[in-house]
Specification:
Layout lengths: L2 E3 L3 H5 L6 E7 L13 H5 L12 E11 L1 H6 L6 E8 L10 H12 L7 E8 L21 H8 L4 H20 L9 E9 L1 H11 L8 E5 L6 H4 L4 H18 L9 H19 L2 H5 L4 H8 L6 H4 L2 H16 L11 H18 L1 H4 L5 H6 L4 H12 L5 H10 L3 E7 L7 H11 L3 E4 L5 H4 L1 H12 L2
Parallel strand pairs: 1-2, 4-5, 4-6, 6-7, 7-8, 8-9
Antiparallel strand pairs: 2-3, 3-5
Helix pairs in contact: 4-22, 6-7, 9-10, 10-15
Protein name: AB hydrolase-1 domain-containing protein
InterPro entries: AB_hydrolase (IPR050471), AB_hydrolase_1 (IPR000073), AB_hydrolase_fold (IPR029058)
Pfam families: Abhydrolase_1
């Protein structure tokens, strides 16, 4: 997807037809405090010169227009009301995780099922993922660096620092949205926030910053307070996945760089990692359910000239065999369509292979085991995982949130979520005084419960 510069953002929003990625360049260092209590400028002095973050560093967001913009622009009796809906993803995810949900929202708006006016969707990429730069550079996350340098690096990977990035992007988008209609000086802008997992923690810190943002509605997805008892005791599924992950890490770390040149070994390694991640984010019932016909055709007829598709023969061969068996023997019990597990495994592994090809260009040569073990955008994910581990909301934070949280607020969680336990989600919603809604699925309810989630979003944005 082509990236557009944000210098003249307001001018090309009017002509925007589909999703477009925008680059924002931020000069200020994050305003979050370091672990030692010093400012981030002091923390940066602990880093070597070659590890100092770039100035300015790049942030990115995907902009999409939905709703009826033409009729709202004609009405000259009142200032045009524009809704800006900002989506913040979780650990290691980019704006692509929201595209299917935004597409469903657009279809419902175009089908005249609801009226949301003119709505601008802003899908934010956190630092280190998507089109946003890895900030700060990754080496101090590794074990081979000095403790002081590591502490200075990790202090810049907090939910507060990520919230500062999101606030900067939102300020740019809101300013460009206000400049859309020059005929009305008092253009009404309504801001809605949606966050998933770590994205919800970022939204909490976004509400706690000063001066506070004027937010009309907020939706938390798979979120809890971050206390010790919210994580423990962990679910049995999460424990099994953690054991499988550490065994995978040991196996991957012992593979030499020369062995990873073998495409088959590389594919097997990535497929094992993909299976672990799928078991944590989706329920067994969802992964075993049949795939939609359109997605089945795209899987079976993927172009063989594409390198990532050509290397996944064993996944597609099983899908082709299952489809051929189902068409030839439709009355037999063992005939079955393609399952969602095969579809997500195919896409996950194909994307990972593309990242793996560029891994040698960004990896730290001093930590070859880490380079070999986790080629899936590892350093950005590690930094965001650190933000999750140190994220806590105190009682004072909850009291401030209760005052600043908008009237239209809700929390949605998956019934079978192994990462954020349903009881912890309900306790967080009760502490804030907002409704908690249980949906079918596991951690990634944006895929499993996409249809009811889209309806809740439309109810939130609708005036």
């Amino acid at each position: 997807m082509e990236y557009l510069e944000a210098k003249r953002l307001g001018k090309w929003i009017d002509n925007l037809q589909g999703p477009a990625c925008v680059r924002f360049y931020r000069r200020q260092i994050g305003r979050g405090a370091c672990a030692s209590g010093a400012s981030n400028d002091t923390c940066l002095q602990s880093l070597p010169q070659e590890r100092v973050p770039p100035d300015p560093y790049r942030l990115s967001a995907c902009i999409v227009k939905i709703g009826n913009w033409s009729e709202c622009a004609v009405d000259s009796g009142k200032p045009p009301a524009t809704s800006v809906v900002a989506f913040v993803p979780g650990v290691g995810a980019s704006h692509t995780m929201w595209l299917s949900l935004v597409e469903l929202l657009s279809e419902r708006c175009n089908g005249n099922r609801t009226s949301v006016g003119r709505t601008l969707v802003c899908l934010i990429d956190n630092r280190g993922t998507g089109g946003s730069e890895l900030y700060p550079p990754p080496a101090p996350i590794c074990r081979c660096v000095r403790a002081r340098e590591r502490k200075a690096n990790l202090s810049l990977w907090t939910a507060q620092a990520l919230a500062d990035d999101a606030r900067y992007v939102l300020e740019q988008v809101l300013g460009a949205t206000k400049a859309l209609d020059s005929t009305h000086a008092n253009t009404s802008i309504r801001l809605f926030l949606v966050g998933h997992s770590l994205g919800s923690a970022i939204l909490c810190h976004l509400l706690l910053t000063s001066p506070p943002l004027e937010v009309s509605g907020i939706m938390f997805l798979s979120m809890h307070q971050g206390r010790f008892r919210d994580w423990f005791p962990p679910s049995a599924r999460a424990v099994r996945a953690s054991v499988r992950y550490w065994l995978w890490w040991i196996r991957a770390a012992t593979i030499s760089t020369t062995a990873l040149q073998n495409e088959r070994k590389r594919l097997r390694l990535l497929t094992q990692r993909a299976a672990i991640d799928l078991s944590l984010h989706f329920s067994d019932a969802f992964l075993a359910s049949p795939l939609e016909p359109a997605a089945q055709r795209s899987l079976l007829h993927a172009p063989r000239t594409d390198p990532s598709a050509g290397e996944l023969h064993h996944i597609r061969r099983s899908a082709e065999t299952a489809t051929a068996t189902a068409s030839a023997l439709p009355k037999k019990r063992y005939s079955r369509p393609i399952r969602r597990h095969e579809w997500y495994l195919f896409n996950y592994t194909a994307e990972s292979l593309e990242r793996f090809r560029a891994w040698d260009e960004i990896a730290d040569v001093r930590h070859s085991s880490g380079r070999n073990a986790d080629p899936l955008n590892a350093y950005g994910s590690l930094g965001q995982l650190h933000a999750v581990q140190v994220y806590r909301l105190t009682r004072a934070d909850l009291e401030r949130l209760r005052v600043r949280i908008p009237e239209k607020a809700m929390l949605l969680y998956g019934r079978d979520d192994p990462l954020t336990r349903p009881r912890a989600c309900r306790a967080f919603a009760e502490a804030l005084g907002i409704p908690a809604i249980e949906l079918t699925g596991a951690h990634l309810i944006t895929e499993e419960s996409k249809i009811p989630l889209a309806q809740f979003l439309l109810d939130l944005v609708r005036a």
